[in-house]
Structure formats: C-alpha cells, structure tokens
Amino acid sequence: MNTDPIADYLTRVRNAIASKHRVVEIPASNLKKELTKILFDKGYILNYKFEDNGPQGTIKIALKYHPITKTPAIKKLTRVSKPGLRKYAGKDTMPRVLNGLGIAIMSTSKGVMTEKEAKVQNVGGEVLCHVY
Questions:
Q1: CB 48 within 8 A of CB 23
Q2: Contacts of 116 (CB under 8 A, 6+ apart)
Q3: What H or E segment, with its residue span, contains residue 87?
Q4: pLDDT for the residue 3
C-alpha cells in the first residue's frame, strides 16, 4: 500500500524524465487524472490516455521534450503538502512559482486547479505540488 499516492505519481514522472523515457505508466485515481489533465492543459506533457484495465486502471502519459535540444518540458516537480505536514493557502496567500513562470497545483473545494484559476475563482485550498 502506498501512503502518499501524489508523491508516487510525481516520483514516477520525475524518474521517467531522468531516464529520458517517452511514456510513463501510473496507477490511476481521480486525483491523479485531474493532475494529468492540468499538466496537459498547461503544456507540460505531450498527451495522456486513461486505460480501464483491472480494478484500478492506469494512466499512460507521453512526456514532452524539446525537439532539438532534447530537454524535458518539466524541469522540476516538487511535492508541497505532505501527509505529515499539510500546506494550505488562502485566497490572499496564493504561492507564486518561479515568479509566475511555473504553476502550483491546488486541491480546492471547487476541484483540482492551478493557483491562478483558484485566485480567479476566489478560493483557497491545499497546495499539492509545484511544477516548472
């Protein structure tokens, strides 16, 4: 059993990027699916596919690399809120990642979204991770 599925998700993606893999396969959950959709919408991954095989299903993520220099689109993935120490941000104290160049993914009462979307919707929540 995995105690922190979000950290496992981020670590699998981080390890696949370090190994220059094109595709990474991750056990699915609704939260992981939402994280994947955000990463796709913001241009950090090339594509994704949800497969319903077995009781849990899997997520296949096609990682994005620069065509000439072969550098990954995701430079750094960091887990912010951990099971032992949760980190929350109110609507006035939204985190800024790399002075606005990166994104912070948050779990709010209105669903999983970036810090910019949460600020527009005027909600706060748990800061899951930083991506840049």
A1: no
A2: 103
A3: none
A4: 87
Size of the chain in residues:
132
The percentage of residues in the chain with a pLDDT greater than 90, rounded to a whole number, is: 95
DSSP string, 6-68: HHHHHHHHHHHHHTT-SEEEEE--HHHHHHHHHHHHTTSEEEEEEE--TTT-EEEEEE-B-TT
Q: Has this prediction a pTM greater than 0.85?
A: yes
d(CA 120, CA 73): 26
- State the virtual CA torsion across 99, 102, 103, 104 in degrees, nearest 10: -70
Give the integer Cα–Cα distance in Å for 114 and 103. Answer: 6
Neighbours of 18 (CB within 10 A): 9
pLDDT digits (tens, 9 = 90+) for 54-78: 889 999 999 999 999 999 999 999 9
